[in-house]
């Protein structure tokens, strides 16, 4: 039976246009990734921490009237944004040269932000 399927697959491959083959290959790849992801999730007890709410992730509140967001951890770096007093923002644990990293290319002075209560900063 397997030889019949292989023979039939060869016939289809010869007769199908390239675009169809590419679409089929992509679909097969997606199905394989989905199945592998499902198996991994089952091995982890069915929990998927990537989709869990980040209730303890670092989040900070601004303590200055106006706080500049800079492109790099340097007071002379380009200003790429601003926050007002009591504004909240997600942040990372990274502190460099007295600046806390908010995200890639976004830094604020660590002197003018405070971690929110119960957050891991």
In short, what is this structure?
The protein is of the alpha+beta class and 121 residues long. It has 2 helices and 8 strands, in the order H-H-E-E-E-E-E-E-E-E.
What does this structure look like?
- The chain has 121 residues and is of the alpha+beta class.
- 33% of the residues lie in helices and 26% in strands.
- The chain has helices spanning 2-15, 18-43, and strands spanning 59-62, 66-70, 79-84, 88-90, 95-96, 99-103, 106-109, 113-115.
- The strands form 3 sheets. The protein has a 3-stranded antiparallel beta sheet, with no helix packed on it. Strands 5-6-7 form a 3-stranded antiparallel beta sheet, with no helix packed on it.
- The radius of gyration is 25 Å and the shape is elongated.
- It starts with a helix and ends in a 6-residue tail after the last strand.
- The model has no long low-confidence stretch (mean pLDDT 80).
Give the secondary structure arrangement, pairings included.
Layout: H1 2-15, H2 18-43, E1 59-62, E2 66-70, E3 79-84, E4 88-90, E5 95-96, E6 99-103, E7 106-109, E8 113-115
Antiparallel strand pairs: 1-4, 1-8, 2-3, 5-6, 6-7
Distance between the termini: 60 Å
Task: Give helix and strand order, one letter per element, not per position.
Answer: HHEEEEEEEE
If helices are DSSP runs of H or I spanning 4 or more residues, what is the number of helices? 2
- Strand line-up of the largest beta sheet: 4-1-8
Q: What's the main sheet like?
A: 3 strands, antiparallel
Q: How many whole angstroms does the radius of gyration measure?
A: 25 Å
- The overall average pLDDT, rounded, is 80
Summing up helix and strand content along with how strands pair, one would put the structural category as alpha+beta
Low-confidence stretches: none
Percent range of helical residues = 25-40%
Number of strands: 8
Work out the strand percent: 25-35%
Estimate the global geometry from the Cα principal axes: elongated
